[in-house]
TrEMBL record:
GO biological process: gibberellin biosynthetic process
Co-factor(s): heme
Full protein name: Ent-kaurenoic acid oxidase
Single Gene Ontology MF annotation: metal ion binding
Localization, UniProt: Membrane
Binding sites annotated in the UniProt record for heme: 437
SUPFAM superfamilies: Cytochrome P450 (SSF48264)
Length: 499
């Protein structure tokens, strides 16, 4: 055999070994997760279990770190057809991705078949005793305790004044600061509000320290649980440790204060959490309270801050929508009874067009693009089996950007909501079922008040309109929306809205 012939045979042999090795590696997850299912494996959804250990995480991360995050799901659709349910391995677990409204609604509302199934990284960072880690009965009890003080009509009416005072001061301050990271400033604003609701009067220094740690924490929530320096999860665990230490000092101080003065007036959610007693006479311990605080303070400022930013950008980029939304806010001020200063909850409920602007922003951005559940028994959805113990990922992003549900889905068009009543499972910005986001009404209230004052008196000039978008942990401009808040010409509305 001549030299060239030898090289050709060698290359063919190497290629053959590579194919065999690839086949064996791609079969590992099949042996680990499917082989043990017996005949049930024949009714699994189509899909791809990916590589050993990592499954399809690299494909997921590659897509969400590109300019086209939807390529992750579109690859499944291209390979296996538009069936709306696919098998995979995510975050080290055999998983089923559900992308249809009917499937997502079923998974989110059937508490007898599905329980929370968040990745270990999320549970460890947010807390095993937070809403994402506790049992259905415990969740039901704590949600009942916290729902009214956070989302109730009376509570929201009280919060309006505090929120609008802070919004007015923040916008005025930002307009004098020159160039700012708009998203960073909005997150500080929404964090101040949620801190007030839960902890009343923590210092500015404490707020800033907490907010910095939350930023690091969130970068690890969607990461693989690799606790090695240099990885996001490792840094996030350190941030959680600091958050726990800060909250522990706050809880300890509050308990001491209450012991010294048993008749002190109850003023915030911290007091409510300390007072709750279940039907067996049990109270929440420090770990319970701290995990609930970590969860609520995180969820209570991230979504409202990001959505406020995106709504502002969409309004600025669509002048006709901006003017229509502004006209509605001017009419609200104009029709206000003599002597009234500032917004009321009733007026906010009358912001029909602004509500459509917010809903359209929530749809396009889909702040929480996926929710995790776990099957507690074998379940059949759309003719396919979801095995007991497998994770189920309800992929909201695919639903919100489905052209059959929302024509031209990436077009910002608040008018699409005129007369539209979203069918069950087709609009899920805050999830659904018993574990619907407990602060959804508070978030929309904050966003509405911010946009009200922004539309009346300000504009935003973006520094880098073509800045790349980052999609993890949440969709945002890479520069955190660098730009300037600019006052518009003073009008009677400026004076009437000043406190």
């Amino acid at each position: 055999m001549d030299y060239l012939g030898f090289i050709s045979v060698l290359l063919v042999a190497i290629f053959g070994v590579f194919l065999v090795l690839k086949f064996l590696l791609r079969s590992v997850n099949w042996w680990l997760f499917e082989a043990k299912l017996g005949d049930k494996r024949f009714s699994l959804p189509p899909g791809d279990l990916g590589w050993p250990v990592i499954g399809n995480m690299w494909s997921f991360l590659r897509a969400f770190k590109s300019s086209n995050p939807d390529s992750f799901i579109s690859t499944f659709v291209t390979r296996f057809g538009p069936v709306g349910i696919y098998k995979t391995v995510m975050f080290g677990n055999p998983s089923i991705i559900v992308t249809t409204p009917e499937g997502c609604r079923r998974v989110l509302t059937d508490d007898e078949a599905f329980m929370p199934g968040w990745p270990i990284s999320t549970v460890e960072l947010i807390g095993r005793k937070s809403f994402i880690g506790i049992s259905y009965e415990e969740h039901k009890r704590l949600r009942k305790l916290t729902a009214a003080p956070v989302n109730g009509h009376e509570a929201l009416s009280i919060y309006v004044k505090y929120i609008e005072d802070n919004v007015i001061l923040a916008l005025d301050k930002w307009a004098n600061m020159g160039q700012i990271e708009f998203l960073t400033q909005l997150r500080k604003l929404t964090f101040r509000i949620i801190m007030h609701i839960f902890l009343s009067s923590e210092s500015e220094q404490a707020r800033e320290a907490l907010e910095r740690e939350y930023t690091t924490l969130n970068h690890g929530v969607r990461a693989m649980a690799i606790n090695i320096p240099g990885f996001a999860y490792h840094s996030a665990l350190k941030a959680r440790k600091k958050l726990v230490a800060i909250f522990q000092s706050v809880v300890t101080a509050r308990r001491a204060q209450r012991m010294e003065n048993a008749t002190v007036q109850k003023k915030d959610m911290m007091d409510a959490l300390m007072d709750v007693v279940d039907d067996k006479g049990r109270r929440l311990d420090d770990e319970d309270i701290i995990d609930i605080l970590i969860m609520y303070l995180n969820a209570g400022h991230e979504s409202s801050g990001h959505v406020s930013m995106w709504a502002t950008l969409f309004l600025q980029n669509h002048p006709e929508v901006f003017q229509k939304a502004k006209a509605e806010q001017e009419a609200i001020v104009k029709n206000r009874p003599p002597g009234q200063v500032g917004l009321t909850l009733k007026e906010i409920r009358q912001m029909d067009y602004l509500s459509k602007v917010i809903d359209e922003t929530l749809r396009i951005v889909t702040f929480s693009f996926v929710v995790f559940r776990e099957a507690m028994k074998d379940i059949n959805i759309s003719g396919y089996t979801i095995p007991k113990g497998w994770k189920v990922l309800t992929w909201f992003r695919d639903i919100h950007l489905d052209p059959e549900l929302y024509p031209q889905p990436k077009k910002f068009d608040p008018d699409r909501w005129d007369g539209l009543i979203a069918k069950a499972g087709t609009f899920l910005p805050f999830g659904a079922g018993s574990r619907l986001c407990p602060g959804n009404d508070l978030a929309k209230l904050e966003i509405s008040i911010f946009l009200h004052y922004f539309l009346l008196n300000y504009e935003f000039e973006r520094q880098n309109p073509s800045c790349p978008i980052i999609y993890l942990p949440h969709q945002r401009p890479k520069d955190n929306c660098l730009g300037r808040i600019k006052r518009i010409s003073p009008s009677k509305f400026v004076q009437e809205e000043k406190h």
